[in-house]
Amino acid sequence: MTDSTHNVHAVRTYLTGLQKQIAETLGAFDGTEFAIDSWQRGPQERLRGGGSTRILEGGQFFERGGIGFSDVAGDSLPPSASAARPQLAGRGFEAMGVSLVMHPRNPHCPTVHMNVRLLIATKPGEAPLFWFGGGMDLTPYYGYEEDARHFHGVCRDSLAPFGADLYPRFKKWCDEYFYLKHRNEARGIGGIFFDDVAEPGFDEAFAMMRSVGDSFLSAYLPIIERRRDTPYGEAEREFQTYRRGRYVEFNLVFDRGTLFGLQSSGRTESILMSMPPVVTWRYNWTPEAGTPEARLYSDFLTAREWV
């Protein structure tokens, strides 16, 4: 987990380029340009550094979407980062990453999340410790096996050069991570998730993270291109906003990135840009048997092998 040759500048350059590329591609798909909100922490704040949030609201295709880059440093790791590593409590840190969530308006088009990040823990007189994390996952409202298999196939292929064991491990990790324990149900169909990756060294761990980031558009664009013109009505829209409630519940209760940002006094607007713009909850509701809504639960929100 230590490496004196790591190139933090190369990671920063990659992440800012990835954010720009994804924003330009998805903005062109939507026909709406992402607005750019650059920000910097003030000298009296707990965190140092800054970032840039690219936000799209009320687009032609995306009802809301955000792609954030942040590069911040602090004098001590927040509890969400050191809970599993008590030996790191009290260390300073630098955290940088790109995180995105896109919420299409059409219920037949899935919400998507992707994140790639580097965290470095520092202590005077000792070598810095680093680890990479990230992944991507898909949250459909109406299930399509073709889409699920495509998404997971791209995830698998992005990890294949770094070991045949990574996709099964990271898929299982994703299935277990994006799970609403209080609901006893998955958030979506998963994808891949990894954290604390430092082996076999900085360069290869960075290369793996880069491969995941570079594969995002290949995983998501063909799906929304297929589904963007699928007709829908009020009933489908109501089900979409209901299922979006699960997204909100997970992000506010379980998501480590959200907790890390809030516990470290991060920028609230950037942290909560993942929230969908229109959400509903219903009391003790279940879909009628035999409907497409019921099939989402029975056939898609269960851990299964897609590729």
From TrEMBL:
<keyword id="KW-0479">Metal-binding</keyword>
<dbReference type="InterPro" id="IPR001260">
    <property type="entry name" value="Coprogen_oxidase_aer"/>
</dbReference>
<dbReference type="GO" id="GO:0046872">
    <property type="term" value="F:metal ion binding"/>
</dbReference>
<keyword id="KW-0627">Porphyrin biosynthesis</keyword>
<dbReference type="Pfam" id="PF01218">
    <property type="entry name" value="Coprogen_oxidas"/>
</dbReference>
<keyword id="KW-0963">Cytoplasm</keyword>
<feature type="binding site">
    <location>
        <begin position="115"/>
        <end position="117"/>
    </location>
    <ligand>
        <name>substrate</name>
    </ligand>
</feature>
<dbReference type="InterPro" id="IPR018375">
    <property type="entry name" value="Coprogen_oxidase_CS"/>
</dbReference>
<comment type="similarity">
    <text>Belongs to the aerobic coproporphyrinogen-III oxidase family.</text>
</comment>
<keyword id="KW-0350">Heme biosynthesis</keyword>
<feature type="site" description="Important for dimerization">
    <location>
        <position position="182"/>
    </location>
</feature>
<feature type="binding site">
    <location>
        <position position="152"/>
    </location>
    <ligand>
        <name>a divalent metal cation</name>
    </ligand>
</feature>
<dbReference type="GO" id="GO:0006782">
    <property type="term" value="P:protoporphyrinogen IX biosynthetic process"/>
</dbReference>
<keyword id="KW-0560">Oxidoreductase</keyword>
<feature type="binding site">
    <location>
        <position position="113"/>
    </location>
    <ligand>
        <name>a divalent metal cation</name>
    </ligand>
</feature>
<feature type="binding site">
    <location>
        <position position="182"/>
    </location>
    <ligand>
        <name>a divalent metal cation</name>
    </ligand>
</feature>
<feature type="binding site">
    <location>
        <position position="103"/>
    </location>
    <ligand>
        <name>a divalent metal cation</name>
    </ligand>
</feature>
<dbReference type="GO" id="GO:0005737">
    <property type="term" value="C:cytoplasm"/>
</dbReference>
<dbReference type="InterPro" id="IPR036406">
    <property type="entry name" value="Coprogen_oxidase_aer_sf"/>
</dbReference>
<feature type="region of interest" description="Important for dimerization">
    <location>
        <begin position="247"/>
        <end position="282"/>
    </location>
</feature>
<feature type="active site" description="Proton donor">
    <location>
        <position position="113"/>
    </location>
</feature>
<comment type="subunit">
    <text>Homodimer.</text>
</comment>
<comment type="pathway">
    <text>Porphyrin-containing compound metabolism; protoporphyrin-IX biosynthesis; protoporphyrinogen-IX from coproporphyrinogen-III (O2 route): step 1/1.</text>
</comment>
<comment type="function">
    <text>Involved in the heme biosynthesis. Catalyzes the aerobic oxidative decarboxylation of propionate groups of rings A and B of coproporphyrinogen-III to yield the vinyl groups in protoporphyrinogen-IX.</text>
</comment>
<feature type="binding site">
    <location>
        <position position="99"/>
    </location>
    <ligand>
        <name>substrate</name>
    </ligand>
</feature>
<dbReference type="GO" id="GO:0004109">
    <property type="term" value="F:coproporphyrinogen oxidase activity"/>
</dbReference>
<dbReference type="GO" id="GO:0042803">
    <property type="term" value="F:protein homodimerization activity"/>
</dbReference>
<protein>
    <recommendedName>
        <fullName>Oxygen-dependent coproporphyrinogen-III oxidase</fullName>
        <ecNumber>1.3.3.3</ecNumber>
    </recommendedName>
</protein>
